[in-house]
Design brief:
By secondary structure, the protein is α/β, with parallel strands linked by helices. The protein has one domain: Glycosidases (TIM Barrel), CATH 3.20.20.80. The protein is built from 15 helices and 15 strands. Helix 3 packs parallel to helix 5. Bound molecules: 6-O-phosphono-beta-D-galactopyranose (BGP). This is Beta-glucosidase. Belongs to the glycosyl hydrolase 1 family.
Length: 457
């Protein structure tokens, strides 16, 4: 039997924009997602926008009981900035009442909430001023963070600032998947830097408001594996890791940006605008723990004829199609559970063995109803196998001393996903879109309950 450390967190991750619904109701102002859906609905899978998303604004009380039903002892979700502070300054009392009751009900069900502040949902009022491109966003975020800590800090003591901050950089400023769909490497670096400073300022506010609480950040870790160990391919791997992982992980844990990243950005004429106090702020405001979302690795190689200086990240590294790769046939992503062991060792060796947890891991499946049995239950054995394979490698890392305190799946209830809508299902509960978002437990929910009860398998 594989046992996990005592007090291990078994849970799931979600986010406000993907689960709450009531996107334009109860005092909420629009985020970039609401705006983009109104202006460009054709970009969204099957015209499924952010308005209704699994309806948790109405169903949260029952959902908290469902969390308990499948043995979750913790949940990470987020607060919608646009619900709490619709104009960035004025508190929305309905939002305060909703979140307080929601978080309290989680706790009453024995579920520890980990609360995140930003999950890709930039307020439209701030976007109109330039969003993360402008320094003003840093102080706007710090004010929002302080407000959230003050309003909910008596219920929630574990917080995170951002989910996958590199995603809004990449998707919004390099590859056109998220609003404002700008393609500009230099702007992307500035957006990343301002986001990092917003994180740092939020940590600073946290220490004042909740000195006994814990704060972290959630990063998507896609460790790079190079095609060969030629110096060129190794450089490509290093560039990928520097830009995608170390850019947030190093300041969060070590309080500074890696010298190699500063050099890389300089060589490519991408250096962002900074302020004199930034270095000191970064140094002082490191985190208590790290969350790492892991889905798949990056396979990289050196580009053939790169532009110098780089115009796009592809001038520094390009994808490599590893012939041995195992693919999730229902979502297209690579399945490589071994990486979780490598990540565990990296955290132990390079990041002071800081407490960390797997904050997202899961298997997306399109058209999952094909696995539905007569009684209505989805027999998702593929998902159980996926999770167990990943846990095998995580367990090995823990046995070898990595300080991992939990494993959260993506996700608890099938939820809406950005441009994919409801195509890829990940939940322990199926959501029936035809029938008022009705929930039905999948087989993996039963499996997870046993796992959590036995603290292992
Ligand atoms: C993560 C995000 C989640 C979620 C998940 C699944 O990167 O933090 O918000 O969307 O990916 O991705 P998808 O729904 O695109 O399959």
């Amino acid at each position: 039997m594989k046992k996990f450390p005592e007090g291990f967190l078994w849970g799931s991750a979600m986010s406000a924009p993907q689960t709450e619904g009531h996107g334009s109701k109860n005092g909420k102002s629009p985020s970039t997602w609401d705006y983009w859906f109104q202006t460009n609905p054709e970009k969204f899978n099957q015209n499924q926008g952010p308005e209704n998303t699994s309806n948790m604004y109405e169903t949260y009380a029952d959902d908290c009981l469902r969390m308990k039903e499948i043995g979750l002892n913790s949940i990470r979700t987020s607060i919608a900035w646009t619900r709490l502070l619709p104009d960035g300054k004025t508190l929305n009392p309905e939002a305060v009442a909703f979140y307080r009751d929601y978080f309290q009900k989680m706790k009453d069900s024995g579920v520890e909430p980990i609360m995140n502040l930003f999950h890709f949902d930039m307020p439209m009022w701030l976007m109109e001023k330039g969003g993360w491109e402008v320094r003003e966003s840093v102080e706007a975020f710090a004010f929002y963070a302080k407000t959230a800590f003050e309003q909910f800090g008596d219920i929630v003591t574990k917080w995170t600032t951002f989910n996958e901050p590199i995603v809004h950089v990449e998707c919004g400023y390099l590859y056109g998947f998220h609003y404002p769909a700008v393609v500009d490497f230099k702007k992307a670096v500035q957006v990343g830097y301002n986001t990092l400073m917003a994180h740092v300022r939020a940590v600073e506010e946290f220490r004042k408001v909740l000195p006994n609480g814990e704060i972290g950040i959630i990063l998507n870790i896609s460790p790079a594996y190079s095609r060969s160990n030629s110096p060129e391919d190794e450089r490509a791997k290093e560039a990928s890791d520097l830009l995608n992982s170390n850019s947030f992980l190093d300041p969060a844990v070590h309080g500074k940006l890696p010298d190699a990243l500063i050099q890389l950005v300089k060589e490519n004429q991408l250096t962002p605008e900074t302020q004199p106090e930034d270095k000191e702020l970064m140094k002082k405001n490191t985190v208590d723990f790290i969350g790492l979302n892991y889905y798949q690795p990056r396979r990289v190689q050196a580009p053939e004829n790169p532009a110098v200086p780089a115009i796009m990240p592809e001038d520094l590294y390009v994808p490599y199609d590893w012939p041995e790769k195992k693919i999730n046939p229902y979502r297209g992503w690579e399945i490589y559970p071994e990486a979780l062991y490598d990540v565990a060792m990296m955290m132990k060796e390079n990041y002071n063995n800081i407490p960390w947890y797997v904050s997202e891991n899961g298997m997306g499946v399109a058209e999952e109803e094909r696995f539905m049995k007569e009684d209505g239950m989805i027999e998702d054995d593929y998902r159980i196998e996926f999770m167990q394979e990943h846990l095998d490698y995580l367990h090995k890392g823990i046995e070898e001393g990595s300080n991992c305190f939990g494993y959260h799946t993506w996700t608890f209830v099938d939820c809406w996903s950005w441009l994919n809508g409801y195509r890829n299902r990940y939940g322990f509960y199926r959501v029936d879109l035809e029938n008022q978002f009705e929930r039905t437990m999948k087989k993996s929910g039963l499996w997870y309950k046993e796992l959590s009860k036995n603290n292992g398998y």
